[in-house]
C-alpha cells in the first residue's frame, strides 16, 4: 500500500491528525498513565524514577519508596544511601536520588510540602522538566498537557504532525492540531500505540489501525500475519 501524500494545507493536516486521534481513542479506550499512584506527590516521585526505566519496574519499586517516605519532608530528610538502595533497580539511582531529594526539599521550602498544580511552578523543582510536569498535571490535577516522551515524539514525526526533534516544539506543534481538552488522552493513546504497535525499530505496520492514514506506512513489517506477531499486549 502506498503511503498517503502529505496534507496539502493546514486544514487538511488538522483533519487527518484528528481522524487519526479518533481511531487511536477507539483502539485504546482504556489508555491511562501506567505508573501506579494515589497522590500528586507519589506520581511526581514515580515519574522521576521512570526516566530510562519501564513503568512496570517503577511500579515494583515505588510501594517501598512510598512506605519509607510518605511525605516530601520524609523524602527530603532521607538517608541518601538507604534511598539509593531502594531505587537502585530503576537505573541511574544516584542521579535520581539527588533529583528526588532536591525536589522534595524544594516542595518543603517553597510549597509547604505540597505539589503545586501549575506548570511554571513544577518546572522549578529539581529533576522536573516539562514532560514530567505535564504527566503530573494531566493525571493528578486534570490539567490538559502533552507528554512528549520518546514514543510520543517518534509517532508524531512518523504521522507527519511535526518534523521537530525538540520536545518543546513537538509539544507546541502537536498541541496546535488538537483541542486542549484532548491533550492528556492523546498523550496516553500515542504512548500506548508506540509501546504496542509502532515500535522504534520494527513497527507492526501491517497490524496498524492507522495504516491508511499514516505517511510512514511501510517503514516496518507490512505483512499482516508477521506484523501481528510484533504487537505487544499489556504493559
DSSP helix count?
Answer: 12
Strand % is under 5%
Integer-rounded radius of gyration: 19 Å
The CATH class label of the largest domain is: Mainly Alpha
Q: Cα distance, first to last residue?
A: 30 Å
Helix/sheet category: mainly alpha
Portion in helices: 40-55%
The second-level CATH architecture of the largest domain is: Orthogonal Bundle
Order of helices and strands: HHHHHHHHHHHH
Shape: globular
Q: Mean of the pLDDT scores?
A: 95
Essential attributes:
single chain, mainly alpha, Endonuclease Iii, domain 2, Endonuclease III, domain 1, 55% helix
What does this structure look like?
The structure is a single chain. This protein has 235 residues and is an all-alpha fold. The chain has 2 domains: 10-30 and 153-230, Endonuclease Iii, domain 2; 40-141, Orthogonal Bundle (Endonuclease III, domain 1), CATH 1.10.340.30. The protein contains 12 helices and no strands. The longest helix is centred in the middle third of the chain and has 19 residues, at 93-111. The radius of gyration is 19 Å and the shape is globular. The chain starts with 9 loop residues before the first helix and ends in a 5-residue tail after the last helix.
Please write out the topology:
Elements: H1 10-27, H2 40-49, H3 55-68, H4 72-76, H5 80-87, H6 93-111, H7 119-122, H8 130-141, H9 150-158, H10 167-175, H11 183-196, H12 224-230
Helix pairs in contact: 1-11, 2-3, 2-8, 5-6, 9-11
